[in-house]
Amino acid sequence: MKKLVLAAALSAAATAGYAGNMQPPVMEAPVIVEDTNASSSSAGVWVPLVLLAIVAAVIIAD
Fold first, then answer.
1. How far apart are CA 9 and CA 15, in angstroms?
2. Which of 37, 57, 35, 54 has the alpha carbon at shortest distance from 46?
3. Are 46 and 40 a contacting pair, CB within 8 Å?
4. Taking the CA of residue 24 as centre, how many other CA atoms within 13 Å lie in the half-sphere pointing to its CB?
5. pLDDT (tens digit, 9 = 90+) per residue, 2-36?
6. What is the dihedral of CA 53, 55, 57, 58, to 10 degrees?
């Protein structure tokens, strides 16, 4: 029993010695989030204008 405990203690001590290495730590690059805006300030105007043109065409044709 004593040999088993001694072997376990030596095994644990030996693995702790190999825990690190001499290489510098690897740092991850920071994540940069960029707000994207619409390509044009009047991009939201086209849909209502097209709908208005369709309604006007229906009224004129009636």
1. 10
2. 54
3. no
4. 3
5. 888 888 887 777 665 555 667 787 889 999 888 77
6. 170
